[in-house]
Amino acid sequence: MTQPLVYPLQWNTAQKLAFRFFFVYFILYVFPFPFEHLPGSNVLIEYYNNAWNALVPWIGRTVLQLPYEITVFPNGSGDTTFNYVQLLCFGVVSFTALLIWSALDHHRPNYNTLLYWLVVVLRYYLAFTMFTYGFAKVFKTQFPAPNLNRLMQPYGQSSPMGLAWTFMGYSTAYNWFTGLGEIIGGGLLLFRRTTAFGAVILVAVIGNIVAINFCFDIPVKLYSSNLLLMTLFVLSAEGKRLIHVLLLNRPAPALDLTPFRTTRRWRIGRLVIKTVIIGLALYSHIFDGLATTKEYGDSAPKPPLYGLYHVESFAVNGDTLRPMMTDTTRWRQVVVAGYRKYPSLTIRLMNDSLRRFAFEPDTVKLKAVLYTRFDTAHKYRLSYQRPDTNTLILKGMFRKDSIYARLKKQNIEQFLLVNRGFHWINEYPLNR
């Protein structure tokens, strides 16, 4: 019978140096995980974030002497100047800790116990992160179907990130495929016996995400790269065994990473706690996914007047404007999109420039309010009429002018991306 392979009791110098650096670096990077999930931790986390919000701009200004002030803090982009400077801080702190730690503790033969607990933290961090992204794909809230504005946008005017979002959002099945890969890989990390299998899956899954983020200029490059680095670190404990199995065709005994012997009561207690944690994590992601789907999903309720409209006639201050392609005043198309709780209205002018507004229709009074999301002080109030199901008339004060617009609703099914569907048999490729 093959005996379990005990992790080496004597580490070489390179292993100890690398561990000291990555131990500090990963703890800094994932913090405040897992404390952020504890009740009453909001105040502590707020102090922690405020400290970085003050330190990072100071370092950028006084130490790095950047030519501009850091005023943009973490948001939908994870590749801001703030993120790069903070990552540099993590690296400097980790390297400094490495030097001090090495000077004070250079005789220690190994860090098996610390390695065990660091891998536990990274396993759970990666698993819960993969659950977040995976369920967002399964419930199709991260990549919704291309909306009307996207369908009307010229291909060449889309950003690389927008192109990737359109590609992903088109197919529900592909969302399920990629999402389940993240969920399954993350779920396998929650158990020691399947950690290696889960890490191998996630190396492929996260590696693909990193490639997309870099190749399509999606601003999650730093975060996804660090997730891949964590996965490779978790997998590194299995490195020799995988090389034996995959490359050298040799038997590989089980790896025993348990740093201590446990009692039966401890094992039962740990199993109960683990079951509760995993159960709560799955429940929260599924519950949030279902709730978010009702607001943002492909089948979420659409706003009143939803649709794509062609402007048949348009008048400003009583003067009807002819449809000239160079006109920067006359409307050409109107798109009412978004969701019932978050409707939007986009105006395409004759010269193809766009004007985007938040849209608040009142179906009782037959009135609507338009305003840009970053300028709520200036709101434009219009009234509307529906002579028939395909006609919409808008009139009122828009900016400083009185306008009248007669719109004709267009068939959304006209778009090939919408009506093409799936075909088992293709006599010829349809590549347009």
Number of domains: 3
Residue share in β-strands: 15-25%
The secondary structure category is: alpha+beta
Order of strands across the main sheet? 3-5-6-7-8-9-10-11
**Residues in helix, %:** 40-55%
How many helices in DSSP terms? 12
- The ordered H/E elements are EHHHHHHHHHHEHEEEEEEEEEH
Poorly predicted runs of 5 or more residues: 1-5
What radius of gyration results from the CA coordinates? 28 Å
The count of strands amounts to 11
Whole-number average pLDDT?
Answer: 89
Outline the biggest β-sheet.
8 strands, antiparallel, barrel
Bulk shape? elongated
Give the distance, in angstroms, between the N- and C-terminal Cα atoms.
61 Å
Protein name: DoxX family protein
Keywords: Membrane, Transmembrane, Transmembrane helix
Transmembrane segments: 17-35, 84-102, 114-136, 173-191, 198-220
Organism: Larkinella rosea
Question: What secondary-structure arrangement, pairings included, does this model have?
Answer:
Layout: E1 5-6, H1 13-30, H2 42-63, H3 81-104, H4 112-138, H5 148-152, H6 160-170, H7 172-189, H8 195-215, H9 221-236, H10 239-246, E2 255-256, H11 264-296, E3 307-316, E4 319-320, E5 331-338, E6 343-349, E7 354-362, E8 367-372, E9 375-388, E10 391-398, E11 401-410, H12 416-419
Parallel strand pairs: 1-2
Antiparallel strand pairs: 3-4, 3-5, 3-11, 5-6, 6-7, 7-8, 8-9, 9-10, 10-11
Helix pairs in contact: 1-3, 1-4, 2-3, 4-7, 4-9, 4-11, 7-8, 8-9
